[in-house]
């Protein structure tokens, strides 16, 4: 995915930061009294330019979340299985080289297929698979079932990707219908206060199952105070609208059902301020089916627009900070100019008052220099 609009907005934020730095350096503001107050505005602009936006992919197990993340990245980064994975939240951000770190451990050179416990995709070691209320899995290994409670596990990956380059963090999540710990990890990550204005949620629903109670539970969270912004920025997808590239009667029937399922879901979700559900077939997009590729292009454009809107809001805040900085500098320079004019008026009055009197040099006592210090002895 090439996030054109998002990249343009990121460049706009970088330009604001550069201009603010050039302004204070050109005027040597750091040497002014109270220089810290001017630097505060520059620091805020820098923070706005460096903040990252989260693109969080959520849904029940086997809805196609990891496949969708891989599609956006243009490579098979996260494992894909037919069962619900007991994996942690997985963050991917931009880096010129590939690195991987788990939790708070030290970052080390990243190679996905070398991650301990995971076999080559799409196969996954059985001890990484878990069960969910809507998918069949191999079950959790005993050591996982007895795992002590602690901070939510989080994998961090850095890699060179056009999607991630404009300060985007792509987050793949475990199934929302999985273990209570997985659901809590998603809620804590997504709905923590600092993130609400920095996140775009892509929620996937499996067309084979339609909307489920775990889906409804997630949408119910959007009705909580302070979560309305997440609902406004959410993009809802109905995945597995397949049947255009096959002669299989069952898949063709499924395709015919997609419009009805879309209408039913949109009707039910209107109470959550969700007005549109977009059809998607990742399977047929990978096969190059034109209609599926067109649907995917629409979705990618919508994601690009949502991410660009987040950065546009920060540009607005940055411009406000820059305007305040320029105004403060202008007020200071104007005050200095007024002070200079006052000094000139005083100097003129002194000159007029002393025009018929001996000059200071004439009145200077012997042995005193013109500066008021001791006179230097002649060599």
From TrEMBL:
Top-level taxon: Eukaryota
Compositional bias of kind Low complexity: 136-145
Signal sequence extent: none
Occurrences of domain Dynamin N-terminal (ranges): 55-225
Region ranges (Disordered): 125-151, 357-379
Alphabetical list of Pfam families matching this protein: Dynamin_N
Name of protein: Dynamin N-terminal domain-containing protein
């Amino acid at each position: 995915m090439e996030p054109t609009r998002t990249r343009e907005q990121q460049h706009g934020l970088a330009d604001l930061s550069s201009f603010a730095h050039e302004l204070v350096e050109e005027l040597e503001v750091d040497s002014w009294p109270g220089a810290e107050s001017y630097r505060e505005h520059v620091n805020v602009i820098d923070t706005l330019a460096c903040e990252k936006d989260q693109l969080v992919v959520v849904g029940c197990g086997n809805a196609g979340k990891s496949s969708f993340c891989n599609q956006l990245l243009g490579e098979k980064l996260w494992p894909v299985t037919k069962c619900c994975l007991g994996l942690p939240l997985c963050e991917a951000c931009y880096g010129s080289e590939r690195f991987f770190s788990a939790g708070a451990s030290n970052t080390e050179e990243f190679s996905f297929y070398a991650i301990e416990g995971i076999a080559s995709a799409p196969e996954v070691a059985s001890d990484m698979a878990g069960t969910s209320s809507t998918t069949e899995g191999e079950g959790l290994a005993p050591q996982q079932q007895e795992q002590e409670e602690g901070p939510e596990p989080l994998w961090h990956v850095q890699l060179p990707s056009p999607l991630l380059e404009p300060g985007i963090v792509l987050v793949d999540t475990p199934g929302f219908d999985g273990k209570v710990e997985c659901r809590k990890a998603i809620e804590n990550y997504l709905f923590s206060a600092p993130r609400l204005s920095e996140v775009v949620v892509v929620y996937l629903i499996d067309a084979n199952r339609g909307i489920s109670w775990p889906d409804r539970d997630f949408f119910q969270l959007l009705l909580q105070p302070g979560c309305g912004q997440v609902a406004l920025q959410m993009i809802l997808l109905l995945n597995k609208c397949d049947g255009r590239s096959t002669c299989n009667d069952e898949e063709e029937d499924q395709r015919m059902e997609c419009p009805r399922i879309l209408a039913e879901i949109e009707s039910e979700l209107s109470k959550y301020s969700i007005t549109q559900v977009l059809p998607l077939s990742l399977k047929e997009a990978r096969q190059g089916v034109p209609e599926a590729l067109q649907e995917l292009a629409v979705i990618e454009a919508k994601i690009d627009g949502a991410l660009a809107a987040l950065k546009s809001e920060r540009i607005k805040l940055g411009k406000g900070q820059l305007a305040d900085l320029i105004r403060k500098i202008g007020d200071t320079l104007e005050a200095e100019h007024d002070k200079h004019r006052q000094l000139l008026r005083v100097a003129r009055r002194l000159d007029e008052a002393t025009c018929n009197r001996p000059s200071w040099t004439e009145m200077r006592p012997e042995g005193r220099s013109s500066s008021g210090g001791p006179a230097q002895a002649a060599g």
